[in-house]
Design a protein that fits this description.
The structure is a single chain. This protein has a single domain, classed as Beta Barrel (Lipocalin), CATH 2.40.128.20. The protein has an 8-stranded antiparallel β-barrel with strand order 1-2-3-4-5-6-7-8. The mean pLDDT is 88. Strand 7 and strand 8 form a beta hairpin. The chain is mainly β and 171 residues long. The protein is built from 3 helices and 9 strands, in the order αβαβββββββαβ. It is found in: Secreted. Its main location: secreted. Belongs to the calycin superfamily. Lipocalin family.
Length: 171
């Protein structure tokens, strides 16, 4: 009998989660500053990126609930998601509807007060997002983000930064 080759390790399994992660400190308002992804939709529509605000809560002390506010085609949208704790600290799972719709998420790095770098994986596709407590972060934080981007094989060609103008907030 032939043996099956071992399943290749997913890119996200190689990512080390933030060791000193405090979910209560992660809660609050964040702004999406940048994203690195091979998503073709993002590449085609990057000129239409809008300022995006996210509110994070920790409803049960172990999962993360996000409420994302963004403008799309002139309308304000709220997207609510619930990330459940996964098998290790700093790792979460967003269950979707249907086969192959789950999203794994890892909090890669944060200081809780000014920035957070989060990894997302759906199927074999990985993306990284940079969030800031304000819509602009320091050059040093941008450099940290870009190091994380390069570490998973993405590049500046697949990295997009969000505008800081046109911010709007939930009512």
């Amino acid at each position: 009998r032939r043996r099956r080759p071992p399943t290749p390790q997913s890119p996200l399994e190689k990512v080390v989660a933030q060791a000193e992660l405090s979910l209560p400190q992660l809660a609050g308002k964040w702004f999406l500053v940048g994203v690195a992804s091979r998503c073709s939709y993002l590449a085609e529509h990057s000129h239409r990126l809008e300022a995006t605000a996210v509110t994070v809560t920790v409803p049960d002390g172990q999962s993360l609930a996000t409420s994302t506010f963004r403008k799309l085609d002139g309308m304000c949208w709220e997207i609510r998601q619930r990330y459940l704790p996964a098998r290790a600290h700093g790792r979460f799972l967003l269950k979707g509807r249907g086969y192959g719709s789950k999203v794994d998420m890892v909090v890669g790095e944060t200081d809780h007060s000014s920035y957070a770098i989060l990894y997302y994986q759906k199927g074999r596709s990985i993306s990284i997002k940079l969030y800031g407590r304000t819509s602009q972060v320091s050059d040093a934080i941008v450099e940290k983000f870009e190091q994380h981007v390069r570490a998973v094989g993405l590049s500046e060609d697949t990295t997009y930064y969000f505008p800081t103008y046109g911010e709007w907030h939930s009512a």
